[in-house]
Amino acid sequence: MIKQEMSLSKKQKGKAIVESVAKYIFTICAIASIIAVFSITFYMIQKGTPALFEVGIKEILFHTVWEPASKTEPQYGILYIILTSIVGTAMAILIGVPIGVLAAIFLSEVASDKVAALVKPVVELLAGIPSVVYGLLGIMILNPLIYQLEQKIYADSTTHQFTGGKNLLAGVLVLAIMILPTVINMTESSLRAVPVQLRAASYALGASKIQTIFHVVLPAAKSGVITAIVLGIGRAIGEAMAISFVAGNSVNAPFPFHSVRFLTTALVSEMEYSADTHREVLFTIGLVLFAFIMLINLLIGKLLKKNEKKHG
């Protein structure tokens, strides 16, 4: 008995030590994450704000002319660049999210196990393709097709500047394809997590399969779907390499057949050779991009909390 009690006490002490060590490790990891977020925020503010005071908030954020290399009077207006990122991301989400959600519904609720087993690896393969490959495919396949469409639409125009298919529309389509794996995988997981009892109750009340999917299952998985959309927005607004290949990389108003430049491509294309005020303004562009992502996360977080309160 005494030996058994001693062995039990040793085991309990061992468990207590393990739990204590695990608690400290988890705490350190949490603190490290918080420090990382605050460090990035501080660095972006420190590097991004000097240009706002040197050049002027109005001249940077609300002017449209971008000529940083001008020897007479450099211009640092990024309004068109900001609008391009907003419009391009919004259009990509409007195209990609419905397709992704419907594809997830198909995999989760409609497709047989064999079909789902065939389709799922393809979706996962899309997620693993590097962005530079999407860009190369866009140049070889998408740009020529869009250029043909552009020639037909503006055949009689004397003022349109042809882009060779490298324009906002091409960038939007590439972004829409790139966010599909994220939206499909997250939404499918959320749909599969909905309890079977909800489906059974819906069928018992006489609802059809389509009614059950769209009026019971999808609303029950709303938080997961919103999370998928947020991650899709993050992927779209933060993409640079593929967009720099297919969108033309010129600062223009964000119309479908205009060659455009996104916030990310502005940083990628000019950071290497920039200096002095030009470089500081590029950090300001990074700060604007960072602010957009933070704002989107905060807004979606509030929406999720409101949704939880309504159904909680």
Description:
- The chain is mostly helical.
- It folds into 2 domains: 2-48; 78-311, MetI-like fold (Orthogonal Bundle).
- Helix content is 77%, strand content 1%.
- The protein has 13 helices and 2 strands, in the order αααββαααααααααα.
- It has helices spanning 2-48, 50-54, 57-61, 79-110, 113-128, 131-153, 168-192, 196-204, 209-220, 222-238, 241-246, 263-270, 276-311, and strands at 66-67, 75-76.
- Strands 1-2 form a two-stranded antiparallel ribbon.
- The chain is globular and about 80 Å long.
- The model has no long low-confidence stretch (mean pLDDT 87).
How would you write the strand order of the largest sheet?
A: 1-2
- Summed over residues and divided by their number, the pLDDT gives a mean of 87
Q: What's the count of strands?
A: 2
Briefly note the structural class of the backbone: mainly alpha
CATH class of the largest domain: Mainly Alpha
User: Into which percent range does the helicity of residues fall?
Assistant: over 70%
Terminal residue distance: 50 Å
Tertiary shape: globular
User: Strand-residue fraction?
Assistant: under 5%
* Unreliable parts: none
Order of helices and strands: HHHEEHHHHHHHHHH
Rg from alpha-carbon coordinates: 25 Å
CATH topology of the largest domain: MetI-like fold
Instruction: Tell me the number of structural domains.
Output: 2
